[in-house]
Specification:
A hairpin with a 2-residue loop joins strand 6 and strand 7. Strands 1, 2, 3, 4, 5, 6, 7, 8 and 9 form a nine-stranded mixed sheet that branches. The chain is an alpha/beta fold. The longest helix has 17 residues. The chain is globular and about 50 Å long.
Amino acid sequence: MKVSIITVVYNGEKTIRETIESVLAQEYEAVEYIIIDGNSTDTTKDIIQSYGQRINTFISEPDLGIYDAMNKGIRLATGDIVGILNADDIFDTPRIIPDLVERFKETEADAVYGDLLYVAADNLSHVIRNWKAGHFSPISFLWGWMPPHPTFFIRREWYDNFGTFRLDLGSSADYELMLRMVQKHHAKLAYIQKVMVRMRVGGVSNVTIKNRILANRNDKKAWEVNQLTPYPFTFLCKPVRKILQFII
């Protein structure tokens, strides 16, 4: 089973090497690594190119933002399974992809996800939020639940059949994609009860109250465009779940 990992980056010279090393350290042979760079102006491209053919595909060109870059990577992916690891993130151990593949095989799932640690930007060992995803049920999204998107791996044919990231939903594009795949089209999920990814804090949707309000509006739009009906309290549950993640 071949796994495609996509990293998108723009001016990520401070963190891209750690991201790359965490992918190349995986104890699994059939990994296709794709890096999409938005035409960085710092030393990011030089760092990536220093790995030579260990990076299977490297493209550096202007794009329309992070989700446009992700879509480019998805179109290039040839693996049976596709996952996205951004340039601020790292895999927690070298056993993430082997464990992921084993979980796909033993459950025959369409998508697999796990737990996530938000860590300080300058210290990967300093845990700020502990996102224990928990098991999925058919009403999970209705209660404000979602899988941690950096841990979400899905079979490539699901992108072929049901589309990639929408560019009109801002930072809620990952939420909408998982809502579409799981809640609308009923992808079978399997959970790995372990930390898969460490993610540096500072996501766009959480930087300011204004951005958080915009993200909430786009979350509502995600349900509308998929012709799904949330509970009246669905969008209140989502931030409450985030608050609980600060309790380690």
